[in-house]
Write a structure and sequence with these properties.
By secondary structure, the protein is an alpha/beta fold. The protein is built from 13 helices and eight strands. Helix 7 links the parallel strand 3 and strand 4.
């Protein structure tokens, strides 16, 4: 039995395509009107929302956040502190919700899993040769399986852009299907690295390929290159997710990550989600924001909306 057939047996709502079918699906993905896409993204980014709606959006931004650290200097102590902040972003204000997940390197997954047990905050780990998505396939798949065994709830892997940009869609698809199988029941996010794809047409095609391979989420960026997340790129992915849902009946989540540091940016992405995908996607199950320094700015904005004045940054823990 092929990997795709085995996954379809275990996850009947996920994989519906063979490699050849996925390649054809990518090839016939509709062309993107770049000017129109950028104009719509810019227009939606200018939307203003009232105080109550803004507070609701800021609350959702926290609940949808993957609090992230992916640095070579990450230590056990840093992860313990980050997990505490993920659960109680503002220790003196219990109305502030927990974040959706923490996102870390594989060797620190057991630390986070121990800290977050029974809290509702998920443990996400990068795997599969992050951030390049290259290296021997067996080694990449082994890392995915090991991360699952270590206790990760979610896995963020990277699309093999070398294959994809070389037009080897079937091979790129088969790698993603193999990662889907290696992840088992664990949620799988596929990073497209939109800043390296070169055009909105490529972003749309990569989105289709990842969704056809069984991704639970498609994600903009690793955060390791520039440009990372942009409003037009995210809008392009959201439109692809909308069309995929209309064609297959399966909702795929969208994660934006890389360079999102201000509350204003988070709200702009939430407006894009609402206007493009609708209220069904306005949930951490289908929308995430990957960020390392955004949380404090959101907390400051919430206090400002509630009290009418900004608090000093000294009132918040260091990210």
């Amino acid at each position: 039995m092929s990997q795709a057939a085995e996954i379809e047996r275990r996850h009947p709502t996920i994989v519906r395509f063979t490699a050849k079918e996925a390649a054809r699906l990518v090839a016939r993905a509709s062309a993107v009107d770049a000017v129109g896409l950028e104009e719509r993204a810019a227009s939606l980014a200018k939307r203003s929302i009232k105080r109550d709606s803004k507070l609701w959006a800021l609350d959702l931004a926290i609940r949808s956040m993957d609090l992230t650290t992916l640095e070579g200097s990450d230590t056990t102590g840093k992860i313990v502190a980050m997990c505490a902040k993920a659960v109680r972003p503002n220790p003196v204000e219990p109305s502030i919700p927990s974040v959706a997940a923490v996102c870390i390197y594989p060797h620190l997954v057991p630390v986070a899993a121990g800290q977050l047990k029974n809290t509702g905050v998920k443990v996400a780990s990068v795997a599969g040769g992050f951030p390049s998505g290259l290296g021997p396939l067996d080694a990449r798949l082994r890392e995915v399986r090991e991360v699952v065994e270590l206790g990760a709830d979610e896995i963020d892997i990277v699309l093999n852009r070398s294959l994809f940009l070389g037009g080897q869609y079937a091979l790129a698809f088969e790698e993603l299907v193999a990662a889907r199988e290696a992840a088992g029941e664990t949620h799988l996010k596929v990073i497209l690295e939109t800043g390296e794809l070169g055009s909105y047409d490529r972003i749309r095609q990569a989105s289709v390929l990842a969704m056809a391979a069984g991704a639970d989420f498609i994600k903009t960026s690793t955060g390791k290159i520039q440009p990372a997340a942009t409003l037009p790129a995210a809008l392009c992915m959201m439109e692809a997710a909308r069309e995929f849902f209309h064609e297959t009946g399966r909702r795929v989540g969208v994660k934006v990550a890389g360079g999102i540091r201000q509350s204003k940016q988070a709200i702009q992405y939430l407006v894009l989600v609402y206007e493009t995908l609708g209220s069904e996607w306005m949930t951490p199950d289908l929308f995430r924001i990957g960020a390392s320094t955004l949380l404090n700015d959101v907390l400051m904005q919430i206090d400002k909306e509630r009290t009418g004045r900004y608090q000093s940054p000294d009132y918040y823990t260091i990210d």
